[in-house]
Amino acid sequence: APPDGGLWRAALRGEMQALALLGAEADATALALHVVLAHPGLDLGADIGAWALPRLVNAGHYGPARAAAERSGLLSAPFAQPGHAGALTAEQCDLLFLLGVLDVQAGPDGRALHDPAMGRGRLARVRAACDPGAGLWWAALRGELQALDLLDALDEAAALVAGLHATHPGLPWPDDITARIAPPVAEA
């Protein structure tokens, strides 16, 4: 069927569901990658984008993941915009985290590929929506710190960690994060 038709989309959704039922994540990732790369002009729609995005990000296919986010409307979705004050659903929280990860990617030269300030904002919103100490809370905090690294804001990273450490002293703080409280002194 032509990829812009209803039958093609229905068949793809059926394949997605079958792969989920089979627990075939490697095949699901391969299918997501194929769909994004083989049909570059195709509007994926939010449902296909939301299915493809986590698979592509988790597999390290950041370029195709960004293309999926753009072509599905997820990057421009209201919940993904700065200043969105509404509560996030669990799915939106996961998607916002993945969009934040894409924003804070560094290239081979160590420079930001996209918008680390936007990523930091998205990841801060995810962290705020999570219980302190939850897995996604730590992952979002690490992403925020990566964004601050890309923005060359080490003092701000130290202040963020110090403030969170003071607010949540009972959490088992990982060494890589607590080391940020006193950033290394630059050599003269």
In short:
This protein has nine helices and no strands. It is mainly alpha-helical and 188 residues long.
Describe the fold and architecture.
With 188 residues, the protein is mainly alpha-helical. 63% of the residues lie in helices and 0% in strands. The protein contains nine helices and no strands. It has helices spanning 6-22, 25-38, 45-58, 62-72, 90-103, 116-129, 135-150, 154-167, 175-178. Helix 6 (116-129) runs antiparallel to helix 7. It is elongated. It starts with 5 loop residues before the first helix and ends in a 10-residue tail after the last helix.
Features:
single chain; 188 residues; mainly alpha
Task: Give the helices and strands, then pairings.
Layout: H1 6-22, H2 25-38, H3 45-58, H4 62-72, H5 90-103, H6 116-129, H7 135-150, H8 154-167, H9 175-178
Helix pairs in contact: 2-3, 3-4, 3-5, 5-6, 5-7, 6-7
Which regions contain 5 or more consecutive residues with pLDDT less than 50?
Answer: none
Per DSSP, what share of the residues sits in E-state strands of 2 or more residues?
under 5%
Approximate helicity band: 55-70%
Shape: elongated
Based on DSSP secondary structure assignment, what is the total number of beta strands? 0
Mean pLDDT: 92
The assigned structural class equals mainly alpha
Tell me the distance between the termini. Answer: 65 Å
Largest sheet: none
Total DSSP helices: 9
SSE pattern: HHHHHHHHH
